[in-house]
Amino acid sequence: MVKRLSPWLLAGPATLLVLIFLIFPVGSTLFATLTDAKGWLAPYMAFFNSSLRRTVLMRTIEISLITTVISVVLGFIAAYVVAHMPGRLKSIMIIAAVFPLLTGVVVRSFAWLILLGKNGILNSALLSLGLIAEPFSMLYTKGAVIAAMVYLFVPLMILTLAGVLEGIPRDVVEAASSLGAKPFAVFRQVILPLAMPGLIIGAVLVFTGSFTSYATPQLLGGERQMMMGTFLYQRAMVTFDWTGASTVAAIMVVVTIAIVVLMTRLARRMNPMAA
After folding, report:
1. pLDDT tier at 272 (50, 70, 90 boundaries)?
2. What's the CA gap between 106 and 109, in Å, rounded?
């Protein structure tokens, strides 16, 4: 009897924690948006009837997707190089790749303030080289937010992909090459499908991290490049509009789930065993 119930007893504490700290808060947030006095869809209609809020949502999706694509490309290249290095050098490179993760998001974002400011390192270097006549504004732009978030999430992508790429049997790659496949064909038909599970996990982590980030868009984007995380904070802590904040949170959850489902379907189409 005890043996039969032991899996449930072992999973019980973790399940209870998930229920208390995830399911219940998310459910309460969604419930709060559906009990508005003006109607159960009134908060959502108010959100989508506002051009400012639609712009914030579309900007957040755009920045998150661009960040994800760039992080996947850069992370894949770096992980591929690291995976084919000899043992000790590989360990050193992995430590170097994840070293930025040892510092806080705010610290790393402040580093970009120093780099991209009008009197920052990049403008000073361009002025000293004579490439520009006067400093130009790089902060509070979409490019600044994307650059900082790519820097934040590429190490995560490398960590996810390095093990997957390392696990691809070299015999399979060599067999494809010996049968006459060109390097690009080997990459597209052998390496990429086999790396798809790592790509899915990494892309989902990067997208959700970008879509819900607060500190980096706030510091480098300001009001001009406001994203959903910043907007959510304003509704909850500045205007104390808890229903509006719950609506923003609910929309973020739905968009994140939708993007994850689309990524999974795309990956399954490329490799049916990937998901």
Report:
1. low
2. 5
**275 within domain boundaries:** no
Q: Which residue is it, tokens 């990524």?
A: 263
Each residue of 25-79: pLDDT tens digit? 888 888 888 887 787 788 899 999 999 999 999 999 999 999 999 999 999 999 9
Tell me the two tokens of residue 138. Answer: 């790089």
DSSP annotation of 188: I
Cβ of 152: how many Cβ atoms within 10 Å? 23
Burial of 213 (0-12, 13-18, 19+ CB in 10 A): buried
Number of structural domains (the chain) is 1
Residue 5 lies in a domain: no
Do the domain assignments include residue 206?
A: yes
Indicate the pTM of the whole model. 0.85
CATH code for the domain of 87: 1.10.3720.10
State the residue range of the domain holding 48: 38-270
Work out whether the CA dihedral 112, 116, 120, 121 comes out positive or negative.
positive
Query: 211: part of which helix (H) or strand (E)?
Result: helix 196-211
Residue 27, domain member (yes or no):
no
Here the tokens at position 193 are 């499908």
